Every structure is written in structure tokens, then in C-alpha cells.
Automatic annotation (TrEMBL):
It comes from Paenibacillus artemisiicola. It holds the Pfam family YugN. This is YugN-like family protein. It comes from the Bacteria. Gene3D superfamilies: YugN-like. InterPro entries: Uncharacterised_YugN-like (IPR014967), YugN-like_sf (IPR036491).
């Protein structure tokens, strides 16, 4: 599920600041290459015993990710249910408490990057 109207799409930040801000909120930069990076945050629904991942993609608009001074721009934000053994189901409905937690983290990230 793509999350619209987060205010993050198009925001840019130096890699070091983005990493620091994302880590403060529990995001981890998992997938990356020279020009792209993906940040994930695991959200647990204990009631249903399901895990969800809030994810945002970034792309380098200046420099490469091997430099802390590279500038990255947020491209899209989305959330999905974790599937076994690995993967995300983006079509499953997301419980409202998980969506609320995701929205809160995204607003906190937006404040840190502003």
C-alpha cells in the first residue's frame, strides 16, 4: 500500500543526516547501492501476531551513497505485511493501529528532515 500525502515525497537530505534521523525513529537502511537506498521500520501487530514494514525509497540526486555528503531525495513511502520466508504483501489490508503508528513515525521523520 502506497502511503500518500506524507509530505516526505520530494524531500531531500544529506545521507549522514538522513541515516541519523531515520535511526532515531527505528528505521534501518537495508537495501542500498550507489544511487538508491531503502529504509525499513518493523511494526508489530501483537493482537494478530503479524509484522508490517513501513518503507521509504530514496535516490541520490547529488553524489553517491559511499559519501556521507551525498544528497538523497525521498521518492515513495509504502507499507506491507511481512510474508514467510521473506517478502512483503502490499495488497493486504493494514490494521488501523499499525497505520496510526506508521503515520506518527512519518510525521516525526518529516520534522527531523525539515
Amino acid at each position: 500500500m502506497i502511503i500518500e500525502n506524507t509530505g516526505l515525497n520530494g524531500m531531500s537530505s544529506e545521507l549522514a543526516h538522513l541515516d541519523e534521523s531515520a535511526e532515531k525513529l527505528g528505521f534501518v537502511r537495508w537495501q542500498w547501492e550507489y544511487y538508491r537506498a531503502t529504509y525499513d521500520l518493523k511494526l508489530e501487530d501483537r493482537a494478530n501476531r503479524e509484522d508490517y514494514y513501513l518503507r521509504f525509497n530514496t535516490r541520490a540526486i547529488e553524489g553517491k551513497l559511499e559519501s556521507a555528503h551525498a544528497v538523497l531525495q525521498v521518492e515513495s513511502v509504502y507499507i506491507g505485511r511481512a510474508t514467510f520466508p521473506h517478502g512483503l504483501d502490499y495488497d493486504s489490508p493494514i490494521p488501523q493501529p499499525i497505520l496510526n503508528a506508521a503515520s506518527q513515525r512519518l510525521q516525526e521523520l518529516k520534522k527531523l528532515l525539515a
